[in-house]
Structure to design on (334 residues):
C-alpha cells in the first residue's frame, strides 16, 4: 500500500514475491488497545484511513469524525507512520490529535500503522534498538495510541537479519515500557507469508515480542487471479505457518491470530475484488474466527466521479461505504 495518494499499493505480483522471498505528549487517548479482541470470538474490523487525507478537499470526508458521521466504521488503521526526519516519527496523527480524541470519545478505536510500500521506515532511520524504542515511545506519548501495526512490504528494505533483530528488540523494549499491542501486516502468496515475512515474525518471536495479529495483505496477486478463492487460500496458508511460528499455538488459535486485508474494487493490477468476493472473505473470516479483517482503504469506499484516480474510489461502488457494510458484518458492528 502506498504512503501517498500518487498511486495505489504497488506490488510485483505473487510470482515476484515468491522470487523475492527465495532470493532474500500530554496524557493518553484510550485507543481501545486494552479491549482489542485477543482470545475472544470477536473479529476486529479496522479498514485503513489515509494519514495524508486529513483536511483535504479531494476526498469524501476530511476527518475521522466526519467519516463516522457519514456512516463510516467505528475502527480504523491510520496509515502510514514513517520517519519524519531521522529517528523521529512523522507527525500527521499528532497534528490531528483532537480529531482522534473526539473519534475515540464517541466509541471509536484507532490503530496506527507504521510502514507501507514507499517512504523511509522509522527502523531504517534509527541506529540502535534503544533509539527505535525511544522514538516509538515518544509517538505513543504524543498520540496516546497504543495499538501499533507494522506494515512491512518493501522487500529487502523491510527485512534483513540486522533490521529484523533491531526491530524485534525495540518492540520488546516498547512493550515492557508502554504495554503496547503489536501486530504485523505482511504480503502473502496463496500459500501464506513469503520468506521476508517469515523472517520478520521469527525475529520478533525470538526477541520475546507478544504478537497480537499477523495480518496478510491479500491483494495484487497478479493479473487474472480469482479473488473469490485466492485470499481464502492465503488465510489458510498463513494460519498453518503461524501454528509453527507462534509458541504454544494450535491451529484454531492460529486462525484467531491471523488477519486478512484486501484491496477493495480495482487492484493495482488487472484484478477486481467485487462486493461478492468481499462477502465470501468475510464469511470465511467468521467461520474461522480470524483476529482481524481490513481493507485498503476507507477513502476508496465511494463511487467514482468522472476522471477519478484509484486512491479516490473503488471502481465498484454505487454508493458510499458499501464495502464497509460488508466487512463490518464480520462482527455485526455498525
Amino acid at each position: 500500500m502506498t504512503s501517498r495518494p500518487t498511486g495505489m499499493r504497488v506490488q510485483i505480483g505473487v510470482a515476484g514475491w515468491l522470487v523475492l522471498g527465495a532470493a532474500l505528549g500530554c496524557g493518553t487517548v484510550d485507543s481501545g488497545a486494552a479491549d482489542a479482541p485477543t482470545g475472544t470470538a470477536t473479529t476486529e474490523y479496522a479498514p485503513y484511513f489515509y494519514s495524508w487525507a486529513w483536511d483535504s478537499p479531494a476526498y469524501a470526508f476530511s476527518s475521522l469524525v466526519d467519516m463516522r458521521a457519514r456512516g463510516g466504521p467505528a475502527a480504523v488503521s491510520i496509515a502510514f507512520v514513517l520517519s519524519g526526519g531521522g529517528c523521529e516519527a512523522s507527525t500527521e496523527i499528532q497534528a490531528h490529535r483532537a480529531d482522534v480524541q473526539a473519534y475515540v470519545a464517541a466509541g471509536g478505536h484507532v490503530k496506527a500503522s507504521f510502514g507501507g510500500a514507499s517512504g523511509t521506515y522509522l527502523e531504517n532511520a534509527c541506529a540502535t534498538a534503544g533509539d527505535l524504542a525511544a522514538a516509538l515511545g515518544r509517538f505513543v506519548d504524543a498520540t496516546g495510541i497504543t495499538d501499533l501495526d507494522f506494515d512491512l512490504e518493501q522487500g529487502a528494505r523491510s527485512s534483513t537479519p540486522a533490521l529484523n533483530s533491531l526491530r524485534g528488540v525495540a518492540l520488546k523494549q516498547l512493550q515492557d515500557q508502554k504495554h503496547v499491542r503489536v501486530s504485523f501486516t505482511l504480503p502473502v502468496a496463496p500459500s501464506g507469508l513469503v520468506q521476508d515475512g517469515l523472517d520478520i515474525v521469527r525475529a520478533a518471536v525470538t526477541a520475546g515480542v507478544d504478537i497480537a495479529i499477523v495480518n496478510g495483505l491479500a491483494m495484487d496477486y497478479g493479473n487474472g487471479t480469482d479473488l473469490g478463492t485466492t485470499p481464502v487460500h492465503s488465510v489458510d496458508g498463513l494460519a498453518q505457518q503461524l501454528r509453527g511460528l507462534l509458541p504454544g499455538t494450535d491451529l484454531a488459535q492460529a486462525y484467531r491470530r491471523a488477519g486478512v486485508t484486501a484491496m477493495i474494487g480495482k487492484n493495482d493490477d488487472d484484478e477486481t475484488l467485487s462486493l461478492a468476493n468481499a462477502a465470501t472473505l468475510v464469511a470465511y473470516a467468521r467461520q474461522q474466527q480470524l483476529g482481524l479483517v481490513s481493507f485498503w482503504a476507507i477513502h476508496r469506499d465511494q463511487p467514482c466521479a468522472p476522471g477519478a484516480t484509484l486512491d479516490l474510489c473503488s471502481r465498484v461502488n454505487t454508493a458510499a461505504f458499501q464495502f464497509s457494510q460488508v466487512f463490518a458484518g464480520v462482527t455485526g458492528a455498525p
In short: Confidence is low (pLDDT under 50) at residues 3-28, 32-40.
